[in-house]
Amino acid sequence: MQPASTSAMPVVTLGSTGWRPVAEQVAIPVGALVVATLLFSVVLLVLGKNPVQYFALVWQGGFGTSFSLQNSLQRAAPLVLTGLAFAIPAAIGLTMISAEGALVLGGFAAAAVAIPLVTGAAPVGVTLVVMAVVAMVVGGAWTAIAGWLRHTRGVNETISTLLLTYIAIAIMNFFVEGLLRDPGSANKPSTMPIGKDYMVGAIPGTSVHWGFVAGLVLAVGLFVLMRRTTFGFAARVTGGNPRAALAQGLPVGGLVVACCLISGACGGLAGFYEVAAIQGQANASLVAGYGFTGILVSFLARHNPLVIVPVAVLFGAIEASGGLIQRRMDMPDATALVLQGIIFVVLLASDTLQGRLAIFQPKGDGK
Amino acid sequence: MTAEMLTTILIAMLGGAIRVSTPFLFVALGETLTEKSGRINLGLEGNLVLGAMVAYAVSYHTGSPWLGVLAAGGSGLMLGVMHGVICSLPRVNDIAVGLAMMSFGIGVAFFFGKPYIQPSAPRLEAWPVGGWSDNPALRQALDINPLFFIGIAVAVFLWWGLANTRTGLILRMTGDSEPAARAMGVDPIRVRVLATAAGGFLAGVGGAFLSLSYPGSWNEGLSSGQGLMAVALVIFARWNPLRCIAAALLFGAAGAIGPALQSVGISQGYYFFNAAPYILTLFIMIASARLAAGQDAPGELSITK
Questions:
Q1: Which residue has the higher pLDDT, A218 or B5?
Q2: What's the topology of domain B3-120+138-297?
Q3: DSSP string, A36-61
Q4: How far, in Å, are A171, B12, B51 from residue B23 at the CA level?
Q5: Rounded Cα gap, residues B215 and B166, in angstroms
Q6: Which residues in chain A touch residue B294, judged by CB atoms under 8 angstroms apart?
């Protein structure tokens, strides 16, 4: 039993605003997801397809069996990392489309640095650590360019990151088609394969590679960093009002670049796992759109690192079920793109409801 | 390198500049129109890809490429209206909605475009402007698609219209100061939805050029970010339709360096030269960001704030 005290009242009202804002954070995105699903169902009906069958197949192909669940988690692994890559700069108010470029360039750098190590028969553990670190550093540095340009020159970061993504892909193509091309890769120019012995294995008892665990750990770590540390607080203050942050003497430029470094490291790590766990080498398969889907994942998770994990699994499932839907319903693999596009548009439109639904508003000032 | 090779490269770059610049020009003009109203539409890449698919499909079914161009504009118009209306809701971020519209437009284009990857549709015929020349390379470079000239005409018309018509004044006023527009009894939301819709139409027409002229077929790798680069191009052109022509030609020439060098047997660094337009755009943005934001940018535009 708490001692009755009048002075405790303001503490209560300041410390927590109750369940309503939390419920709003959950209800509006979920509502948007439902509306988008309904809209997509209408599209399917117009096309003469059965929406119930579609979503049943998504369930079956995404979660239905142990195999499909593992497939979904496997595909979710890069999405967790690219989702985080978008969410961290978003907290500081940046819209960065940089994850795809960081993934491609980081993955390529990992594959490139592996060549002398694998040729020289370096220990597996050392090789993989070097590859991962190089991927994260390259991805981070690449992304930091955009943050630095934003801060020093006022260059819009959305456009500059898009350009940097295309430049990253060109850099990889330049080396993969030339200097670092493996003579054995005839049809699809690639770097030298790192070989089976050097590949990152699966989590014991599953076919899911360790990248998913890495994403999980990073999600928790970044959640703590952004919500429970001075760094995260300063970043969020800057995101809320850059001028106020400057007036408070916060190192805005440093914070912006730091968030971009973290973002790029996440993207680069995704690239590392694509190379070391899936492809075994760097080639055009790295350009798979994970960076772009990650943006949607982050928006749906409201840029909350913890929520990104389940949302990434959901999108992993949609992608995992693509083949099944293609076979059973005779629909192109772009169906998933249409569904994602509709979700994205409806979700952003639902932002307009934030703070405007009476049921979610905190009641008065606690008196 | 001989003088002859240099001539060949320059002619190839000229032809490339004219060919490659047309979609840039249309998207940039559309974006200029939208941004003049105080909004940014990053989704024009989606309009471009969907426009390319729709143009190809309509041309295939009707046998008339010009109907295809019109339909492509119509599809762009619809995406533009969607963007305009959604961004009119309070608290909605126009940059993020642009990204969403881009993925939506591309998704729809890929979804309905599958059956059109194989068949061959009637293309737009180019005008042999270079008929006077004996040089076959120059003649080929000057086979210019009529859409290029239409784009130039639209640019001149927009330049004149923005400066000299009542509609142009209202558009500029809405873009520079929403309170001023309201005080004049103008509904800024209506102006912006209309401007975004018109901009979307132009971007859709730009897409028609991709599938019906150059490269001249429909496939999923048709656009490599031209719709996005055009947004940067608009900043470079400082929201001036006439400067958009020059900027588009410059971008086209940059994009043509790789193929032009390849045509004389220099294939080394081909993939690197492919990145030339992106690198150029980036440097232009670095050089002009603060400058452009200070002087010519519409006051309500979020991208320069």
A1: A218
A2: ABC transporter involved in vitamin B12 uptake, BtuC (1.10.3470)
A3: HHHHHHHHHHHTT--HHHHHHHHHII
A4: 25, 18, 11
A5: 39
A6: none
B90 at interface of A, judged by CB pairs closer than 8 A: yes
Cis peptide before B215 (omega within 30 of 0): yes
Chain B residues with CB-CB distance to A295 below 8 A: 99
Tokens of B158: 């927009």
Judging contacts by C-beta atoms under 8 Å, the chain A residues touching residue B304 are 154, 156
CA–CA distance, B22 with B251 (Å, rounded to integer):
10
Q: Nearest CA to A177 among A286, A289, A275, A283? A: A283
**Considering only residues 142 to 181 of chain B, which have any Cβ-Cβ distance to chain A shorter than 8 Å?**
none
* Interval B222-235 mean pLDDT: 84
User: Cβ of A338 and B108 within 8 Å?
Assistant: yes
**Considering chain B, what is the average pLDDT of its residues?**
89
Residues of chain B with Cβ-Cβ distance to A239 below 8 Å are: none
Residue in B100, B225, B272 closest to A344 by CB: B100
ipTM of the complex: 0.90
Average pLDDT over residues A146-174: 91
Q: How many CB atoms sit inside 10 A of residue B29's CB?
A: 30
Interchain contact B189–A (C-beta under 8 A): no
The model's confidence at residue B301, banded by pLDDT at 50, 70 and 90, is confident
pLDDT-based confidence at residue A269 (cuts at 50, 70, 90):
very high
* Domains of chain A, residue spans: 52-353
Single-letter amino acid code for the residue at B294: G
Which of these, A146, A79, A136, A80, lies nearest to A107 by C-alpha position? A136
B26 vs A3: which has the higher pLDDT: B26
Query: Which CATH code for domain A52-353?
Result: 1.10.3470
Which amino acid type is present at position A212? F
Facing A166 at nearest CB: one of B111, B272, B278: B278
Task: List all residues 6 or more positions away from B14 whose beta carbon is below 8 Å from its beta carbon.
Answer: B141, B253
Return the sign of the alpha-carbon dihedral for residues B215, B220, B223, B227.
Answer: positive
What percentage of chain B exceeds 90 in pLDDT?
57
C-beta of residue A300 within 8 angstroms of C-beta of residue A33 = yes
B235 is written with which tokens?
A: 């900043």
Separation CA A163–CA B231 (nearest Å): 11
Rounded alpha-carbon distances, angstroms, from residue A59 to A25, A33, A322: 25, 16, 11
Q: What is the pLDDT of residue B305?
A: 47
Task: Using a CB–CB cutoff of 8 Å, tell me whether B137 touches chain A.
Answer: no
For the cut 90, the answer to whether the pLDDT of residue A311 exceeds it is yes
Residue with tokens 């070097």: A130
To the nearest whole Å, the CA of B99 is away from the closest chain A CA by 9
The CB density around residue B60, as the number of other CB atoms within 10 Å, is 18
Q: Summarize chain A as % helix, strand, coil (round to 5).
A: 75, 0, 25
Q: Are strands B143-144 and B127-128 parallel, antiparallel or unpaired?
A: antiparallel
**Which of B225, B243, B222, B224 has the alpha carbon at shortest distance from B234?**
B243
Is the pLDDT score of B105 beyond 50? yes
For residues A251-271, give the mean pLDDT.
Answer: 96
Residues forming beta bridges with residue B128, ordered by sequence position: B143
CA distance B228 to B235: 12
Domain ranges of chain B: 3-120+138-297
Token pair in block for residue B288: 């002009």
